[in-house]
Amino acid sequence: MVAYEELSKEELLQLKSDLEAQFEDVKAQNLHLDMSRGKPSTEQLNLSMDMMDVLRSDSDLVCEEGVDCRNYGVLDGIAEAKQLLADMMEVPKDNIVIFGNSSLNIMYDTIARSMTHGVMGSTPWAKLDKVKFLCPVPGYDRHFAITEYFGIEMINVPMTPTGPDMDMVEELVSTDPAIKGIWCVPKYSNPQGITYSDETVHRFAKLNPAAKDFRIFWDNAYGIHHLYEDKQDYLIEILMECKKEGHPDMVYKFSSTSKISFPGSGIAAIAASDANLADIRKQMRIQTIGHDKLNQLRHARYFGNIHGMVQHMKKHADILRPKFDIVLNTLDKELGGLGIGSWLAPRGGYFISFDSMDGCAKAIVAKAKDAGLVMTGAGATFPYGKDPKDSNIRIAPSYPTVKELKLAAKIFVLSVKLVSIDKLLQTK
Amino acid sequence: MVAYEELSKEELLQLKSDLEAQFEDVKAQNLHLDMSRGKPSTEQLNLSMDMMDVLRSDSDLVCEEGVDCRNYGVLDGIAEAKQLLADMMEVPKDNIVIFGNSSLNIMYDTIARSMTHGVMGSTPWAKLDKVKFLCPVPGYDRHFAITEYFGIEMINVPMTPTGPDMDMVEELVSTDPAIKGIWCVPKYSNPQGITYSDETVHRFAKLNPAAKDFRIFWDNAYGIHHLYEDKQDYLIEILMECKKEGHPDMVYKFSSTSKISFPGSGIAAIAASDANLADIRKQMRIQTIGHDKLNQLRHARYFGNIHGMVQHMKKHADILRPKFDIVLNTLDKELGGLGIGSWLAPRGGYFISFDSMDGCAKAIVAKAKDAGLVMTGAGATFPYGKDPKDSNIRIAPSYPTVKELKLAAKIFVLSVKLVSIDKLLQTK
């Protein structure tokens, strides 16, 4: 492969003409493809259908503690569901509080509570002149949407192959008391699929924040969402690590079964220190009489225990792996060596992150749309939707069928090539 | 019956001695009875067990709009669940947004959002020096807990047999811009079982608040929770009424199926004007990807439509009616004419409200506990847990069995008599 930059203007124009013909061919097919969202496919949803039969009209709906799950009672989760999610989140059962169907909602509530009531007795953030959050980029748009909604200033921190730039994190967190948190997706990160290295986690646990109410928002959304049985990333458990370093209260950990059972109908939890959970329960007691215990029971009985859940995740992996392979193989084959984009091959999670030449991401997404392929909006992976280099594009291969994905990947690389050529031609 | 007040000191002492003997007899039985919480009984929960079989592993889980309810998508409720709750709440389908499992949680979120983001563009309440709420008393402790949690000053407004004292409501709401809301349980109110009269609702709809962001928090928790088929209260629908009066945005209406299907595993909704719902959706989009659509589908398919739900409520009534009758008959028979307490006979809802002689409620609840009967804490029906007269006690007859209830009612009236005699003896 010859890098595009090495080509002459004439060669680029010839190439462009060939690629445009291909693009028109695809466009003529009038396709409707979507690689925009980290949604499980129908085939994946079918994996959990037996869950619908777990609780029946003749079932005993009393949980281990002897509470009738059909009635009021039990604020923070039934014992068997706590055990299951504790094992999934690698923390003791007592450090788990179960909420409703969405870990995003727990994160939202956590920020909202900090705004109005502070953190373990600190000044409510709404009463401060300025509140800031660190945002490793590229990252998850819905995290950034929450902090933006509450008027929290977001500071970009570049991601590296081992996690966020920890020099920058340490410097900022230790000197600026307005910095109250950092958004992290520490394993198979959204969108890059990066898992924080041991050193990164150690450095997180050793942070000495200027703000006493600084918290690490550790969104371990993809903790057991591996793609390969023989190639798995390992992430150090942060709660224990913070405890060891004398900062037991510095982290909130979030997770859910959204991409294990059913998105929207799963169960979600927070894991944190006793002191943090006591603070959270004070609010919960006011906010709700309790979450859906029948759905907690349904999940606990369906999976049985963490081993059942891990087995279940292998079935998800079997469906997802070929899809990731299609995209990665197409990227390798079509773009490898051209010098017009870079990407990582993740070992888990839901996304592939693509970095185009600077200033090309928006145009690539628009080009792809022109041929019937919807991608996540360029910029979405940055706070305020502003990618300073306009280069990052999130690819979500989970939802389309294998057949659709082959077409989608083809459209994507065509779009990358065409936009890159236009860019290069500007300077030839 | 001779009123206790008419009795001489000697007669009271003799009576006290007889009643104490009865009380000791009951106490010796070492009972564990509970009339403290508005919890459906096991028999009532059993009514909805077939709901567990509605969605099965071989069911089509696609809703009317063509969305797979197992996956992400649909922020504010699937169409068939909206229709069901719209009919239940007597509003158009488009004025409904469905949330999770708890209307209390919606109310909490509504206040929390108003604190940080204001109401339809108004100044966030957290930025104001003072925010006040009107609280018809006696009322629902969990309403008061929310406003207390957010530091909102609560002003007691006495309940009358036709609803809150509207002269006072009109006067305060029209003159004090710090008053941002009023908590209402307009039908079969908690705890009195009072339904607001037509005039009361009309006067609510005609309010001219000094605060543009004043809202009526209309918690219609017991809208279809009748006890009798032939004696039902009728409540004018407030959304339409406010619209007619030119105040379409002045009210939020809340409801859930907690006491229709399963407490904690039901579905809950808010009904409001288009403008209010647009304001709410702005937050929802940040807070969550969507609530549990499978549970929405389960409810919609189980009840079919509002007629199915109304039929279902008759079965609840058949279980609840005899329980209310036991308590009311015992009160009538044992306390009627004694001048030591008053109560209303509600036609629906979950509670009977008892007013003792002033200064006796706490002592009565303590006395009952002494004999193994747990009542709702005295004072709970007032903001800050402070009943100025120390006279109101909430009786919740739903959870105990008929047999338990007979004993519980007996203990209760014995406790009332004994405490009242002590009170009267102080001035003899």
TrEMBL record, chains A, B:
One matching Pfam family: Asp_aminotransf
Entry keyword set: Aminotransferase, Transferase
Keyword check for Transferase: yes
InterPro entries: AspAT_Ic, PyrdxlP-dep_Trfase, PyrdxlP-dep_Trfase_major, PyrdxlP-dep_Trfase_small
GO molecular function, one term: L-aspartate:2-oxoglutarate aminotransferase activity
PANTHER family for the chain: AMINOTRANSFERASE, PUTATIVE-RELATED, ASPARTATE AMINOTRANSFERASE
Name of the molecule in the record: Aminotransferase
